[in-house]
Amino acid sequence: QVQLVESGGGLVQAGDSLRLSCAASGPTFRRLVMGWFRQAPGEERVFVAAIRWSEGTTLYADSMKGRFTISRDNAKNTVDLQMNSLKPEDTAVYYCAAGILWSTRGESYDYWGQGTQVTVSS
Q1: Cβ contact 45:39 at 8 Å
Q2: What is the predicted pLDDT for the residue at 63?
Q3: Helix/strand/coil (H, E, C) string of the chain?
Q4: Which residues neighbour 87 within 8 Å (Cβ) at sequence distance 6 or greater?
Q5: Residue 82 Cα distances to 9, 64, 110, angstroms
């Protein structure tokens, strides 16, 4: 079974940077697509970014492109999300996910972490 554990969330000011990390474990995670999603209070979960573990190919939501960067570290078995120039509207619970399909839809992912809270103050 694939297990995902997010970390790195916290309270920051607008304009600050934050790096989230997703620790992956299990026998097959390196064959999967890894994604980051976020969910603001009272809102639906939305796609942030995704990466193919094996190739490093990335995909970003248009609103995140240029500010957020997804990457993976083969030595540490982590998928990270570097967030720069944070805005109050970035406030949300951020989730790490894994699945077989190259997709921006949360329904396409099979494994999920518990989430980590990111709060951006103005």
Answers
A1: yes
A2: 86
A3: CCEEEEECCEEEECCCCEEEEEEEECCCHHHCEEEEEEECCCCCCEEEEEEECCCCCEEECCCCECCEEEEEECCCCEEEEEECCCCHHHCEEEEEEEECCCCCCHHHCCEECCCEEEEEEC
A4: 14, 120
A5: 11, 11, 23
Per-residue pLDDT of 100-115, as tens digits, reads 999 999 999 999 999 9
State the Cα–Cα distance between residues 9 and 21, nearest whole angstrom: 9
* Residues 47 and 104: beta-carbon distance below 8 Å: yes
Per-residue pLDDT of 80-105, as tens digits, reads 999 999 999 999 999 999 999 999 99
Q: What is the token pair recorded at 7?
A: 């970390």
Backbone φ, ψ for residue 55 (5° rounding): -105, -25
